[in-house]
């Protein structure tokens, strides 16, 4: 029986909810009913997903990305060069962490030993140095039981990159998992090498398994 990974309540037909791995407002259609209960899902949507939408709004407009659940409407005018709103950085960090936890539980359905609490993520940096040239979303998840680390690299629209430390007590199997998503065409992209920035992990961790 699946459980909500935030509050640990058992998921059943009365409290299930569709949780998008990457928020639908960023154009992603990948979702699962085995991640969050409706209460946690709605709270997260209210409190943190909105902040991530505001943060990404310049690129959402620039690339004319439509939310996954709404019909296509008249295209927005591109507005390249719009400065990023940063007033809700803490909320943005939490939304990024939630995306990483979503991806982990969606792919692995295994518990995380002592996960970083959802409300207190460790954001290690915001990078603009190593980013892809196309407006794709990337999630790279690396788990190493020898180093006891579960970390992720998240890139949005090929414009903003985040390192997230999900656990420092990771004891599950070694994993190295990649998701690349094209929010303009609503599809996963296969056969792409992971971003060069992830080589940094190789110098830190040992025992990665491909
Ligand atoms: Zn819950």
Report on this model:
Helix 1 (38-62) crosses helix 2. This protein has 210 residues and is α+β, with helices and mostly antiparallel strands. It has one domain. The two termini are 29 Å apart. The strands form two sheets. The chain has a six-stranded antiparallel beta sheet with strand order 3-6-5-4-7-8, with helices on one face. It has a two-stranded antiparallel ribbon with strand order 1-2. It contains three helices and eight strands; from the N terminus they run ββααββββββα. A hairpin with a 4-residue loop joins strand 4 and strand 5 (149-156). Helix content is 24%, strand content 21%. It has helices spanning 38-62, 89-108, 199-204, and strands at residues 19-20, 31-32, 122-127, 137-144, 149-156, 160-167, 175-182, 187-188. Zinc ion is lined by residues 4, 6-7, 9, 36-37, 39-40.
Task: State the gist of this model.
The chain is of the alpha+beta class. The protein has 3 helices and 8 strands, in the order ββααββββββα. It has one domain (19-204).
* Low-pLDDT regions: 70-84, 119-125
Structural class by sheet pairing and helices: alpha+beta
- Total DSSP E strands: 8
Sheet with most strands: strand arrangement: 3-6-5-4-7-8
Q: What oligomerization state is this entry in?
A: single chain
The main sheet comes to: 6 strands, antiparallel
Instruction: Indicate the radius of gyration in whole angstroms.
Output: 17 Å
Distance between the termini: 29 Å
Note the overall shape.
Answer: globular
| SSE pattern | EEHHEEEEEEH
Q: List the total number of helices.
A: 3
| Number of individual domains | 1
Are any ligands bound, and if so which? zinc ion
Q: Average pLDDT, to the nearest integer?
A: 79
Q: Determine the strand fraction and express it as a percent band.
A: 15-25%
Helix content: 10-25%
């Amino acid at each position: 029986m699946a459980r909500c990974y935030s509050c640990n309540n058992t998921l059943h037909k009365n409290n299930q909810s569709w949780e998008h791995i990457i928020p639908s407002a960023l154009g992603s259609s990948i979702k699962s009913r085995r991640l969050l209960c409706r209460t946690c899902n709605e709270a997260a949507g209210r409190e943190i997903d909105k902040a991530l939408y505001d943060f990404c709004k310049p690129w959402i407009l620039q690339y004319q990305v439509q939310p996954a659940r709404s019909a296509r409407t008249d295209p927005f005018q591109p507005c390249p060069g719009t400065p990023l709103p940063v007033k809700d950085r803490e909320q943005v960090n939490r939304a990024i962490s939630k995306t990483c936890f979503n991806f982990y539980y969606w792919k692995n359905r295994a518990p995380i030993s002592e996960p970083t609490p959802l409300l207190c993520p460790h954001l290690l940096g915001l990078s603009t140095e190593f980013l892809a040239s196309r407006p794709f979303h990337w999630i790279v998840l690396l788990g190493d039981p020898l180093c006891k680390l579960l970390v992720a690299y998240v890139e949005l629209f090929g414009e903003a990159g985040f390192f997230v430390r999900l656990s420092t007590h990771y004891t599950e199997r070694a994993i190295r998992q990649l998701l690349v998503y094209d929010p303009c065409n609503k599809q996963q992209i296969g056969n792409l090498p992971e971003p060069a920035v992830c080589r940094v992990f190789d110098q830190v961790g040992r025992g990665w398994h491909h």
